[in-house]
Amino acid sequence: MFGLEPHVLLLLLVCLLAACAFEFVNGFHDTANAVATVIYTNTLRPWVAVVWSAFWNFIGVFSGGIGVAMGIIYLLPVESLVDQNVYHGIAMVGALILAAIIWNVGTWYYGLPSSSSHALIGSILGVGIAFSLISGGNGSGVNWGKAGEAGLALLVGPLFGFTLTILLMYMLKRFVKSKTIFKEPHKRKPPPLWIRLTLVTTCTLVSFFHGFQRRSERRGPDYADPDWHCAYLLRHRPNLEPTGHARVIAAGGAGDEQSKPAGAQCR
Questions:
Q1: Of 50, 9, 8, which Cα lies nearest the Cα of 30?
Q2: Which of 20, 55, 96, 107 would you label with 193, given CA atoms 20 to 30 Å apart?
Q3: Angle in degrees, CA 210, 211, 214, rounded to 5
Q4: Half-sphere exposure of 195 (CA within 13 A, CB side)
Q5: What is the C-alpha to C-alpha distance for residues 260 and 116, in angstroms, rounded to an integer?
Q6: Whole-angstrom Cα distance, residue 200 to residue 197?
Q7: What SS3 string covers 97-132?
Q8: What is the CA radius of gyration of the chain?
Protein backbone atom coordinates (compact mmCIF):
# COMPACT_ATOMS: atom_id res chain seq x y z
CA MET A 1 0.00 0.00 0.00
CA PHE A 2 1.27 3.49 -0.98
CA GLY A 3 4.37 1.80 -2.40
CA LEU A 4 5.66 0.98 1.08
CA GLU A 5 6.62 -2.36 2.51
CA PRO A 6 4.07 -3.66 5.06
CA HIS A 7 6.36 -3.29 8.07
CA VAL A 8 7.29 0.28 7.06
CA LEU A 9 3.62 1.17 6.66
CA LEU A 10 2.92 -0.31 10.08
CA LEU A 11 5.66 1.80 11.66
CA LEU A 12 4.30 4.93 9.98
CA LEU A 13 0.83 4.17 11.33
CA VAL A 14 2.29 3.74 14.80
CA CYS A 15 3.94 7.16 14.51
CA LEU A 16 0.64 8.64 13.36
CA LEU A 17 -1.14 7.14 16.37
CA ALA A 18 1.62 8.50 18.62
CA ALA A 19 1.09 11.98 17.15
CA CYS A 20 -2.65 11.68 17.88
CA ALA A 21 -1.81 10.53 21.42
CA PHE A 22 0.40 13.59 21.86
CA GLU A 23 -2.51 15.81 20.81
CA PHE A 24 -4.80 14.04 23.30
CA VAL A 25 -2.31 14.42 26.13
CA ASN A 26 -1.67 18.03 25.16
CA GLY A 27 -5.43 18.65 25.33
CA PHE A 28 -5.97 17.66 28.94
CA HIS A 29 -2.52 18.99 29.85
CA ASP A 30 -3.13 22.54 28.62
CA THR A 31 -6.90 22.99 28.88
CA ALA A 32 -6.63 24.23 32.46
CA ASN A 33 -4.66 27.25 31.26
CA ALA A 34 -7.64 28.47 29.26
CA VAL A 35 -10.56 27.60 31.56
CA ALA A 36 -9.11 28.15 35.05
CA THR A 37 -10.26 31.76 35.41
CA VAL A 38 -13.82 31.29 34.10
CA ILE A 39 -14.36 28.26 36.36
CA TYR A 40 -12.74 29.78 39.47
CA THR A 41 -14.86 32.94 39.19
CA ASN A 42 -18.10 31.02 38.45
CA THR A 43 -18.35 32.77 35.09
CA LEU A 44 -19.01 29.44 33.34
CA ARG A 45 -19.83 26.00 34.60
CA PRO A 46 -16.90 23.56 34.27
CA TRP A 47 -18.47 21.44 31.51
CA VAL A 48 -19.54 24.53 29.58
CA ALA A 49 -16.06 26.04 29.89
CA VAL A 50 -14.37 22.85 28.65
CA VAL A 51 -16.73 22.50 25.66
CA TRP A 52 -16.34 26.19 24.80
CA SER A 53 -12.54 25.96 25.02
CA ALA A 54 -12.49 22.78 22.91
CA PHE A 55 -14.63 24.45 20.22
CA TRP A 56 -12.30 27.41 19.87
CA ASN A 57 -9.26 25.14 19.92
CA PHE A 58 -10.87 23.31 17.00
CA ILE A 59 -11.42 26.60 15.12
CA GLY A 60 -7.81 27.59 15.78
CA VAL A 61 -6.55 24.28 14.39
CA PHE A 62 -8.19 24.99 11.04
CA SER A 63 -6.78 28.53 10.96
CA GLY A 64 -3.10 27.71 11.60
CA GLY A 65 -0.30 27.54 9.05
CA ILE A 66 2.98 25.64 8.93
CA GLY A 67 5.36 28.45 9.97
CA VAL A 68 5.83 27.11 13.50
CA ALA A 69 6.18 23.57 12.14
CA MET A 70 9.06 24.50 9.87
CA GLY A 71 10.67 26.57 12.63
CA ILE A 72 10.59 23.52 14.89
CA ILE A 73 11.84 20.98 12.37
CA TYR A 74 14.73 23.24 11.29
CA LEU A 75 16.14 22.70 14.75
CA LEU A 76 17.61 19.66 13.01
CA PRO A 77 20.11 20.29 10.20
CA VAL A 78 18.79 19.64 6.72
CA GLU A 79 21.51 17.04 6.17
CA SER A 80 20.22 14.89 9.03
CA LEU A 81 16.78 14.79 7.40
CA VAL A 82 17.48 14.29 3.70
CA ASP A 83 20.55 12.06 3.89
CA GLN A 84 18.93 9.26 5.87
CA ASN A 85 16.67 6.33 5.01
CA VAL A 86 13.03 6.05 5.93
CA TYR A 87 13.76 3.83 8.96
CA HIS A 88 15.88 6.53 10.58
CA GLY A 89 13.13 9.07 9.96
CA ILE A 90 10.49 6.87 11.56
CA ALA A 91 12.74 6.21 14.55
CA MET A 92 13.38 9.94 15.02
CA VAL A 93 9.70 10.87 14.83
CA GLY A 94 8.63 8.03 17.13
CA ALA A 95 11.31 8.79 19.72
CA LEU A 96 10.66 12.53 19.97
CA ILE A 97 6.87 12.15 20.18
CA LEU A 98 7.11 9.39 22.79
CA ALA A 99 9.53 11.43 24.90
CA ALA A 100 7.23 14.47 24.75
CA ILE A 101 4.24 12.36 25.79
CA ILE A 102 6.09 10.88 28.76
CA TRP A 103 7.15 14.32 29.95
CA ASN A 104 3.64 15.79 29.54
CA VAL A 105 2.00 12.91 31.41
CA GLY A 106 4.60 13.10 34.19
CA THR A 107 4.20 16.86 34.74
CA TRP A 108 0.40 16.52 34.62
CA TYR A 109 0.43 13.68 37.15
CA TYR A 110 2.53 15.65 39.63
CA GLY A 111 0.65 18.89 38.99
CA LEU A 112 3.66 20.75 37.61
CA PRO A 113 3.00 23.68 35.24
CA SER A 114 4.84 22.86 32.04
CA SER A 115 4.56 23.76 28.37
CA SER A 116 4.12 21.15 25.66
CA SER A 117 6.20 23.40 23.41
CA HIS A 118 9.15 23.04 25.76
CA ALA A 119 8.68 19.27 25.83
CA LEU A 120 8.51 18.97 22.03
CA ILE A 121 11.50 21.23 21.38
CA GLY A 122 13.54 19.42 24.03
CA SER A 123 12.65 16.08 22.44
CA ILE A 124 13.74 17.28 19.02
CA LEU A 125 17.05 18.52 20.40
CA GLY A 126 17.56 15.16 22.13
CA VAL A 127 16.87 13.31 18.89
CA GLY A 128 19.34 15.53 17.06
CA ILE A 129 22.09 14.94 19.62
CA ALA A 130 21.44 11.19 19.54
CA PHE A 131 21.57 11.23 15.73
CA SER A 132 24.99 12.87 15.83
CA LEU A 133 26.27 10.13 18.15
CA ILE A 134 24.96 7.04 16.36
CA SER A 135 26.84 5.29 13.61
CA GLY A 136 26.36 7.09 10.34
CA GLY A 137 25.57 10.48 11.88
CA ASN A 138 27.67 13.08 10.09
CA GLY A 139 28.49 16.36 11.78
CA SER A 140 26.28 18.16 14.25
CA GLY A 141 22.83 16.72 14.84
CA VAL A 142 21.38 20.03 16.05
CA ASN A 143 21.06 23.35 14.27
CA TRP A 144 22.34 25.34 17.23
CA GLY A 145 21.57 28.66 15.56
CA LYS A 146 17.87 27.79 15.36
CA ALA A 147 18.03 26.21 18.82
CA GLY A 148 19.37 29.49 20.20
CA GLU A 149 16.51 31.42 18.56
CA ALA A 150 13.93 28.99 19.99
CA GLY A 151 15.53 29.12 23.44
CA LEU A 152 15.55 32.93 23.37
CA ALA A 153 11.87 32.98 22.45
CA LEU A 154 11.03 30.58 25.30
CA LEU A 155 12.90 32.84 27.74
CA VAL A 156 11.61 36.16 26.44
CA GLY A 157 7.97 34.98 26.25
CA PRO A 158 7.39 34.60 30.03
CA LEU A 159 9.31 37.81 30.75
CA PHE A 160 7.19 39.69 28.22
CA GLY A 161 3.97 38.26 29.69
CA PHE A 162 5.10 39.10 33.22
CA THR A 163 5.94 42.70 32.28
CA LEU A 164 2.71 43.20 30.32
CA THR A 165 0.67 41.86 33.25
CA ILE A 166 2.25 44.35 35.64
CA LEU A 167 1.48 47.21 33.25
CA LEU A 168 -2.13 46.09 32.79
CA MET A 169 -2.66 45.72 36.53
CA TYR A 170 -1.26 49.21 37.07
CA MET A 171 -3.57 50.67 34.42
CA LEU A 172 -6.61 48.90 35.87
CA LYS A 173 -5.88 50.14 39.39
CA ARG A 174 -5.28 53.63 38.06
CA PHE A 175 -8.26 54.07 35.74
CA VAL A 176 -10.97 51.56 36.78
CA LYS A 177 -13.20 53.11 39.42
CA SER A 178 -14.95 49.91 40.48
CA LYS A 179 -12.90 47.83 42.91
CA THR A 180 -14.96 44.69 42.32
CA ILE A 181 -12.41 43.35 39.87
CA PHE A 182 -9.74 43.31 42.58
CA LYS A 183 -11.80 41.40 45.14
CA GLU A 184 -11.78 37.65 45.64
CA PRO A 185 -14.66 36.10 43.66
CA HIS A 186 -17.71 34.84 45.50
CA LYS A 187 -17.78 31.09 45.94
CA ARG A 188 -21.29 30.70 44.50
CA LYS A 189 -22.21 33.93 42.71
CA PRO A 190 -20.84 34.94 39.30
CA PRO A 191 -19.07 38.30 38.94
CA PRO A 192 -20.69 41.34 37.27
CA LEU A 193 -21.55 41.06 33.58
CA TRP A 194 -18.65 43.15 32.28
CA ILE A 195 -16.15 41.02 34.20
CA ARG A 196 -17.77 37.82 32.90
CA LEU A 197 -17.58 39.08 29.33
CA THR A 198 -13.91 39.97 29.80
CA LEU A 199 -13.09 36.53 31.23
CA VAL A 200 -15.01 34.68 28.51
CA THR A 201 -13.20 36.75 25.87
CA THR A 202 -9.78 35.93 27.29
CA CYS A 203 -10.72 32.24 27.59
CA THR A 204 -11.84 32.25 23.96
CA LEU A 205 -8.68 33.92 22.67
CA VAL A 206 -6.35 31.68 24.70
CA SER A 207 -8.17 28.60 23.38
CA PHE A 208 -8.16 29.82 19.77
CA PHE A 209 -4.47 30.71 19.67
CA HIS A 210 -3.58 27.52 21.53
CA GLY A 211 -5.17 25.50 18.72
CA PHE A 212 -3.69 27.85 16.11
CA GLN A 213 -0.16 27.25 17.35
CA ARG A 214 -0.51 23.57 18.23
CA ARG A 215 -1.78 22.67 14.75
CA SER A 216 1.44 23.89 13.20
CA GLU A 217 3.61 22.72 16.10
CA ARG A 218 2.31 19.14 15.93
CA ARG A 219 3.03 19.01 12.18
CA GLY A 220 6.71 19.72 12.84
CA PRO A 221 7.64 16.08 13.56
CA ASP A 222 5.86 15.01 10.36
CA TYR A 223 8.39 16.96 8.31
CA ALA A 224 11.17 14.89 9.85
CA ASP A 225 10.10 12.16 7.43
CA PRO A 226 12.66 12.43 4.60
CA ASP A 227 10.08 12.07 1.79
CA TRP A 228 7.97 15.03 2.83
CA HIS A 229 10.93 17.14 3.88
CA CYS A 230 12.54 16.64 0.48
CA ALA A 231 9.32 17.64 -1.23
CA TYR A 232 9.24 20.85 0.79
CA LEU A 233 12.89 21.64 0.05
CA LEU A 234 12.38 21.09 -3.69
CA ARG A 235 9.94 23.98 -3.80
CA HIS A 236 12.58 26.29 -2.35
CA ARG A 237 15.83 24.76 -3.66
CA PRO A 238 15.46 23.86 -7.34
CA ASN A 239 19.07 22.64 -7.55
CA LEU A 240 18.22 19.56 -5.43
CA GLU A 241 17.46 16.35 -7.31
CA PRO A 242 14.68 14.16 -5.84
CA THR A 243 14.49 10.39 -5.90
CA GLY A 244 11.96 7.88 -4.62
CA HIS A 245 8.73 9.17 -3.11
CA ALA A 246 10.03 12.73 -2.94
CA ARG A 247 9.79 12.94 -6.75
CA VAL A 248 6.18 11.80 -6.65
CA ILE A 249 5.20 14.05 -3.74
CA ALA A 250 6.94 17.07 -5.24
CA ALA A 251 5.05 16.51 -8.48
CA GLY A 252 1.80 16.56 -6.53
CA GLY A 253 0.48 13.20 -7.64
CA ALA A 254 0.47 9.50 -6.88
CA GLY A 255 1.02 8.29 -10.44
CA ASP A 256 3.46 5.40 -10.40
CA GLU A 257 4.03 5.64 -6.65
CA GLN A 258 3.49 1.92 -6.29
CA SER A 259 6.72 1.30 -8.17
CA LYS A 260 8.81 3.68 -6.11
CA PRO A 261 11.23 2.48 -3.42
CA ALA A 262 10.49 2.96 0.28
CA GLY A 263 13.05 5.72 0.79
CA ALA A 264 13.76 9.11 -0.71
CA GLN A 265 16.73 11.41 -0.92
CA CYS A 266 17.52 14.90 -2.13
CA ARG A 267 20.93 15.41 -3.63
A1: 50
A2: 55
A3: 85
A4: 21
A5: 37
A6: 5
A7: HHHHHHHHHHHHHCCCCCCHHHHHHHHHHHHHHHHH
A8: 22
Residue 232 CA to residue 225 CA, distance in Å, equals 11
Spell out the per-residue pLDDT of the chain, length 267, in tens. 556 678 778 888 888 888 888 888 887 777 777 898 899 899 999 999 999 998 998 888 787 666 666 666 677 765 655 555 677 777 888 888 899 899 988 988 888 877 777 888 888 888 888 877 775 555 567 788 888 888 888 889 889 999 999 999 999 888 888 777 788 888 888 888 888 999 999 999 998 988 887 655 555 454 444 444 444 444 444 454 544 444 444 444 444 433 333 344 444
Measured CA angle at 65 (ends 247, 91), to 5 deg: 55
Q: What b-and-e string marks burial along 38-67, b requiring 16 or more CB atoms within 10 Å of the CB?
A: bbebebbeeeebbebbbebbeebbeebeee
Distance in angstroms (rounded) separating the CA atoms of residues 7 and 13 = 10
* 209 and 229 Cβ atoms separated by less than 8 Å: no
Nearest-5° Cα angle at 20, 16 to 21 = 115
- Roughly how many angstroms between the first and final C-alpha of the chain, as a whole number? 26
